[in-house]
Sequence to fold (153 residues):
Amino acid sequence: MLDQVVCVAAVTVLGVLEQAYFSLQVIYARRKYSVPPPATTGHPDFERVFRAQANCSEYFPLFVITLWVAGIFFSQAVSAFLGFLYIYGRYQYFHRYAESAQGRLAPLYFTAKVQWGLIALSALGVLCSMSRLYLGVDLFSSLCEVLGLNQLE
Fold:
């Protein structure tokens, strides 16, 4: 079983490390711009770092859940690849937002597309598993056959 989720687990750990990095950046910005906790306003450069970290943290649970559901029910390889893209996109988002509010938009749209991809693969994987389990119909194999694809794993 572990070999079927090790890549998803690795991407999850990478995502957690990224979140820790973002949190440290807020601590550094607090010190640099003299914004003591629990204040969340102050110098505009601090506020952008703070909002970038908060926004990334707000979407992290949705990312992790869909990463794992897609990895378990659809494809570990595809899920891990999309997860890595998401983490890269969030890194870009964080740093571009820290520079300027407008800079965040391109990485924001990129990560939103990746997230919707994970949501779609999660839904498709669960639907295919439920149809196989409860209806005796292997939708995934049928879909691959119709599309002329081999199974992903």
Observations:
- The chain has one domain: 2-124.
- The helical segments are 6-33, 44-73, 76-99, 105-135, 139-147.
- The mean pLDDT is 94.
